[in-house]
Amino acid sequence: MSWSLLLLAMGLLVLGCERRMVGEGTGPAMSGEGVEGTVVKSDAEWRKELTPEQYAVLREKGTERPFTGEYDHTFERGTYVCAACGNELFTSDTKFNSGCGWPAFYAAKAGDRVKLTQDYSHGMSRVEVTCARCGSHLGHIFNDAPDQPTGQRYCINSVSLKFIPAPR
Question: What average pLDDT does range 56-74 have in this prediction?
Answer without folding.
Answer: 95
